[in-house]
Amino acid sequence: MLKSLFCLSLFATAAYSQAVQIGLPTKGDQLAAGSNQTIQIQRPDTLTGSDEIAVVIGIQQCPNGTCTSPDASMGTVLYQGGFDPEFHGPQAPYQNFTVKIPDGLSGPALIGVAHLSLVGASTYPLIEFLNQTVAIV
Prior knowledge:
It is a single chain. The chain is mainly β. It has a single domain (2-136), classed as Immunoglobulins (Immunoglobulin-like), CATH 2.60.40.10. It is built from one helix and eight strands. The strands form two sheets. A five-stranded mixed β-sheet has the order 2-8-7-4-5, with no helix packed on it. A three-stranded antiparallel β-sheet has the order 1-3-6, with no helix packed on it. It is globular. Keywords: Signal. InterPro entries: Nis1. Residues 1-19 form the signal peptide.
């Protein structure tokens, strides 16, 4: 039993260390409808091997300030495809994606990201969902 818990703990730690973050936009940033914006996806450096497969970036309006989690709906998909984070100086690897914010959006919105990678020697599939609240002006 103790070995199982230890292995599960190591597995969870390895998977967590592969987690990505949204670097840009930051929480509460104002984005103009119809404009091109940079979405930065960061992946902290790690000793655990992984193969990056893909990311999906979406946006959705949040009527009455209520948003749907990206694991239930990505909203309007702004990007879907490969993810290849690279080092740019001393900071953690990241990749920038330039996307167009759809015309007609206004008010509170949610940038959603779905990330898929294969982690470790066992090639465990890691699927994670992230979000960042922004304001569309």
